[in-house]
Amino acid sequence: MLPPVSAIVLLALMGLPILWLAVAALDTTGAGGLAAAMLPTALRETATLMAWVGLITGILGLVSAWLVTHFEFPGRRIFEWALVLPLAIPTYLAAYTYVEFLDFTGPIQQALRAIIGGQTIKDYWFPQIKSPTGAAFVLSMVLYPYVYASCRAFFVMQSGSISAAARTLGAGGFRAFFSVTLPLSRPALVVGITLAMMEVVNDLGAVQYFGVNSLTAVIYSTWINRSNFGGAAQLAVMIVLIIGLLILLEQWARRDRVYALHRDSRVAPPREQLVGAERALAIGFCTILLLLGFGIPVGELLVLALRNLGPDALGLTLTAGLTTVTLAALGAFITVCVGLIAARLARSRSAHGLVRIATLGYAIPGTVLALGLLQPLGQADLWFNRLTMAVAHWRPGLILSGSIAALLYVYAIRFLAVSHSTIDAAMKKRGDTMLDAGRVLGVTGWRLLLRVDLPTLSPALLTAATLVFVEIVKELPATLLLRPLGVETLATVVYARANVSLFTEAALPALTIVLVGLVPVILSTRFSDRR
Amino acid sequence: MTMTMRLSAALLGAAMIAGTAGPSFAQSGEVNIYSYREPGLIQPLLDKFSAATGVKATVLYAGDGLLERVAAEGELSPVDVVLTVDIGNLVGAKTQGLTQPITTAALAERLSPEFRDAEGHWAALSLRARVFYVSKDRVDATALTYEDIAKPEWKGRLCTRPGDHAYNIGLVANRIAAWGEDKTRTWLTAVRDNMSAPPAGNDRAQVKAILEGSCDLAIANTYYMGLMLTNDAEPEQKDWAASARIVYPDAEGEGTQVNAAGAFIAKHAPNLENANKLVEFLLSDEAQQLYADANYEYPAVTSVKPAELTQSWGALNPSKVSLTATADFRDEAAALIDELKFNEGAQAQ
């Protein structure tokens, strides 16, 4: 068994940014009051956005999962996997594309004006997309798959006899949905909604674009525009508290429940054949949802990319793409290594709790992590350089901050949960017999990790690496603040162009991000097909 | 315990390998730049500089956070020259101790005193006027003062980017310097309540809102007019710009607020000589003309004329309040904007 000291080291490394911010937040000297002025606004706008996204994703995700698992209709098998596709679209890309699409100069309003002959937006009614309501709509369209996936998994595992019993008792269709399905699926619903809400809290690019004063946006501007690090740290600690609440909520929803009926693996839940209007309704609902969450953003990107296809766009995409792939590959490797160590540590009862806290970085917005890392990394570099200067009269310069190391570090913190949970699940599935055999043969500690874990877990390690790779490709806020001199990733290129109203130039890099994001979606459907 | 040590050693090793992939240090013949300015403007300037001097220029472009980064990197920072927008950033960098005096003689020769730090810690490179874009169709006025847009007749007709953006903080700071805090509070409250919607988007998006018809008067910087009118990459922006014309606020009175974009040399610049060479180049006629012609800004070197297109919008009468006086009220301005909840838009009365 590994010593718990490793678990403490792991926790210290992964928790460093939050710890740093907590200390910085105590500094109320200077312009600390500024944070207080923005806090009520930020809290209210964040809560409103979370509530709307929670409600919309909850309804859309639950209904779509219910349709594809309880009923049979043409296209159902395709919808079943395609409905998760919007997960490949980062929230900031959804924001940029939807504004291009629905804005005054977009195709919809142009067509509207052509038909009714209006000149300005005051001649007809059209919702303003760049608004908090617009943000709630657009974010929900790409975040509902969290609810869909968690509810679908729940329904598939559920015993078919429950809905059969409901139907025997005369409660068919919609009545069965409200009296049986909805109450039963509450845990899965809460888990999905919590994940969607965490993405809302994490988002920076979309809320800035829509002019929503969310906590993350205000942290950013408090630090950058008001030059108030202490105030930003205070707001960041507030975010960590909110995320903590969400995690508690999720844990509560996941708490062990006892069901009288368990799924009989020999009998798949029967699906009711839909006919007539009901069938059309089911097909229509799933089609529109898929169109809104995936069709429109990707279609818009395709149109813009083709319009601007040339050596410039290709060169930009290739250069940034190469950098992104290198960073993501290195980041995935390191994060999976740390995840493997963490999963190994978590097997020991004493270290289990520490490891769980260490993986919480997934819930912390990238902006907050970057904020908490910049100063300690700079300090560490300074101390290290003073040491080498004293010992060897040599200065290596910046090692941690402003180098790829800072990025790899922040990726490891942010995505440890992704690699850890994948590896942990595989370890549990594999069981401990092989480890026992190894121990009997005298292999312990790190050698056990290398000689037994590595070979037996390689499929899970590959999956974990793929998931982390894609997350890094999509990552924006932390990369933006910590990247080294001259380094542009696909995400930072897109952000920079969109900020100066040159989104067309960024369409091809943006499309590339989405294509990469499709990889785990396709992989996960492959795995579920095999099962 | 030994495992922990081995782990730390491995992490350190990995970090050092990664470190070597980062910027290399203090070699002659290079200069490192952190730039808030977009690559489209800066890259042609640097290409010319490299061609003329043989010095290799490496840029990190970021819209935000570069000063914070220079501060965090401290004495080990690889950066030589920081190119920023907003006078507040330039003055703030000096206050935070991130700068050192520019030693090239060109500084005093080329720039009049109001456009450079008295001790040489920063240099303005271009000037940007923050003006009113008004709808060609729906606004007749040809002269407007700052007080005018606070009047009830503009209710539901104004738009601008979020108040906590440096450009708007600069505008409010300029008003505080001119009027004092009380009058500015009354004015800003009225302006807020005249907004057509809560502020969102950048300066160009406000001009687009004029075309859209949701806004009649946008507060934005002049050079965007030129950038949009000549935008062949996104030709639709030509339509945005064509829907509006520029009115210089208070042109016949106290003058229009002007902000500066500029440069400073980092306190721990590893390539000091090249850093000074770069500043000297940026103050040359050739570079200043590029600021004027490629980005439609007003050259900080006043002997270089603005682009003809820029001149066609009218004559600029810069505010009597100096750049540094404006910068002094930056914190007060930011606090006032927050206090009035400017970013929430018009408030019900």
Descriptive key words:
heterodimer; A: 531 residues; 76% helix; B: 349 residues; alpha/beta; 15 helices; 10 strands; 43% helix; 15% strand
Describe this structure in words.
The complex is a heterodimer of chains A (531) and B (349). Chain A has 531 residues and is an all-alpha fold. Chain A is built from 23 helices and 2 strands. In chain A, helix 2 (33-70) crosses helix 9, helix 13 runs antiparallel to helix 23 (507-530) and helix 14 packs across helix 23 (507-530). Chain B is of the alpha/beta class. Chain B has helices at residues 2-20, 39-53, 66-73, 87-95, 106-110, 166-179, 181-193, 203-212, 223-229, 236-242, 272-282, 285-295, 308-311, 323-328, 330-339, and strands at 30-35, 56-61, 81-85, 99-100, 123-135, 158-159, 217-221, 244-247, 258-266, 298-299. In chain B, strands 1, 2, 3, 4, 5, 6, 7, 8, 9 and 10 form a 10-stranded mixed β-sheet that branches. In chain B, helix 2 links the parallel strand 1 (30-35) and strand 2 (56-61). Chains A and B meet through helix 1, helix 2, helix 11, helix 14 and helix 16 of A and helix 1, strand 2, helix 3, helix 8 and helix 10 of B.
Could you provide a short overview of the structure?
The complex is a heterodimer of chains A (531) and B (349). Chain A has 531 residues and is mostly helical.
Low-pLDDT stretches of chain B are 1-27
Main sheet properties of chain A: 2 strands, parallel
Per DSSP, the total helix count of chain A is: 23
Order of SSEs of chain A: HHEHHHHHHHHHHEHHHHHHHHHHH
- The share of residues in helices of chain B is 40-55%
Helix content of chain A: over 70%
Mean pLDDT of chain B: 89
